[in-house]
Request: fold
Amino acid sequence: MKTVRRLLYRAIVGAVAFVTIAFLSLFFFIDFVDELQDVGKGGFTLMHAVLSSLLDMPGHFYELFPITVLIGTIFALARMAQTSEFTILRTGGLGPGRALGLLTLLAAGFAVVSFLVGDYVAPWSEREGVLLKAGVQGGRQLGRTGAWLKDRRTTVDGRELNVSVNVRRTTPDGVLEEVRIFEVDVDSRLVARVAARTARIGKGYWLLDDVRVTEWPSVGPAATAASAPVAVLERHLDQARWPTSLDAGVVAAAVLPVSTMTTIDLWRYSRHLANQEQAAQRHSIQFWKKALYPLACIVMVALALPFAYLQARRGGISAMVFGGIMLGISFVLLNNVAGHLGVLRDWTPWVVAAAPSVLYLLLSMAAFAWLVRYR
Reply:
């Protein structure tokens, strides 16, 4: 059995590695050509373009790995079926259950590799790529409207305030620029507006520089339209501490792309959004998709297993292999479409993330059982 396992694993791993390198080389070329348009702008050089394209590779590997596993496994098993190697292995005692067990163990190894790259290497490289461009460009602009965060805090006199924070830019060293803070009471009345040139994140507070504070004193219930107007208070401070529960992790999740977040980061940020009564459906679905995505490697290997039982003498193996590849691509498309539909329809996040994998796993097992039983 060790010899059979070594033969299968060597053929499949070699084919998967070859397909993965081919895909990554193609995507590196596409990314490099895309980065060339920024060369010469703000100190962005050719070496920066190469480095930025290389830093994108772990993310591409994570996204493409299930597909390359499928294509490589189909290629290896179909070739063994065409040369009758798999038929000889079956004659030597490799039953369907044993073959399924061997490939499941290999698929679990692929899933572990996918998890490690997707949860450790890819977020780090994506973050470094963002910081590289921010360092060259002198900062990172957060869209046309900036990034918005929400928080709650209690004042010294016991009032509950809802807080909305807007950040327009970030510097390469993590300093927030053009910060605006709006504090609203439980009656939806604006209590204070804080504008700061920069903000540095501390433990339980933000350190604001060049601060302009505008306060609207609360008006009691006995006030009427004929009451004398209340003066608006304005202050300018060189520095101020603003107490908040928005820590560095939450801020990073809001200002950086989703691809830079690990599974734990996605879970924490989705919980933060839910606690602040914000829409957390998108990030909850992303969390479950990231948690379950490595299992797609097992589904892809299961989809490829029936191709080992094809009969080469009947012909049409190339068409069947192409059909299997298209089936794998349709799995990725369904996985993405399910995520968007889950956000629009407000479906249960873990069901949205798990449904495509479960559906295709059942389909592959049904095809495998039919081939073993009737072919």
Notes: The first strand starts at residue 140 and ends at 141. The mean pLDDT is 85.
